[in-house]
């Protein structure tokens, strides 16, 4: 079974054209030819989309590098096959596909359904299968494998490694023609070719996210121009510092520097990160919010969003998991049994055991248990907890405890350690500008005449 999965993965690689029967990437109004989006009558050209797609997907967490590697491998295989005089007949491809289908059927799987679920057309699968057969022929010859030995995936991988070490891809921009991203096996791969391959293979949501960034930028720039806003390097620097303060204030990221995270996740330093289009959208919205919200509007916004900032709760949590469905392993209690157990645990309070000790011994909230159930402080409008938490805490005074209450995840008891009033407007001003800026932009976005249409190759 594992070999079947590996075989399918090797055939599909990262470069299989996907052509779903309907385009899930078409949103809103019609988009003119040569564009992937339109906002307020202004088209977003496909060339801009290609540039942004590569900027995002060539980051460490993107798919660009892996896709480029598969494209380079295909070129190496094609060159070596031509030099060796190897070809693959249609009958060989048919036989290989039939063999794969038979193996999958024996494992209770369907090749046809597998391809359909991936959005893979059979012609594309045949093309990749043809390349795989060529690769196996090359591996058998160069590795001198006897006829009785089946060419396995590791044989093909070894041949590719040796071939690429003898003819390594060249990525130095100074040695490549304009628009190229690689040269291998005497063939140039252009940035546009890589982008088209990514457009054919990436999940719809990734492509849509890239298009939305460009459409948002177009709209934000238009709004900024109408408000006579001109950004300066100081605006970008201030937004960078706001990102850093917000990130480094989160307890879960304690000790992690914002700049280090950017380098790890995006492969960029501060200057490169600030040049990203998605970052520019944030800078524009921040500047727009400051221009549109005077002191009166800011005070009104603070009252409207007061729950984001306070009261600030400091709480200890005692939690027992529960499930509505029977747990075959018996590790998770039913809601009824968890309620009984919670009440039994709470009786220990009458014998002098503290809530801190109960949480340390019995709570199944693993993050807080080591701290006696103490949660990170939170506010009614900004927290990661079920809505039942805030409802249960609202009537409490410091030192009081909630009765056991149920959420979708199980049973809870909270002890309110401290309840602090919301901070003054001045101390949350920067965050509030961002909140109001997002609201403003959301209204403009909903009112704008927007269309997105990404056509897969």
List keywords for this structure.
Chitinase A, domain 3, alpha+beta, disordered N terminus, 457 residues, 4-stranded antiparallel β-sheet, 53% helix, 3 domains, globular, 3-stranded antiparallel β-sheet
Shape designation: globular
Helical content band: 40-55%
Rounded to an integer, what's the Rg over CA atoms?
A: 29 Å
Briefly note the structural class of the backbone: alpha+beta
Low-pLDDT residue spans: 1-21
Total beta-strand segments: 9
Total count of helical runs of at least 4 residues = 19
Total number of distinct structural domains:
3
Q: Which whole number gives the mean pLDDT? A: 89
Main sheet strand line-up: 1-9-2-3
- H/E series: HEEEHHHHHHEEHHHHHHHEHHHHEEHE
- Largest β-sheet summary: 4 strands, antiparallel
Instruction: Give the N-to-C terminal Cα separation.
Output: 32 Å
Task: Indicate the proportion of strand residues.
Answer: 5-15%
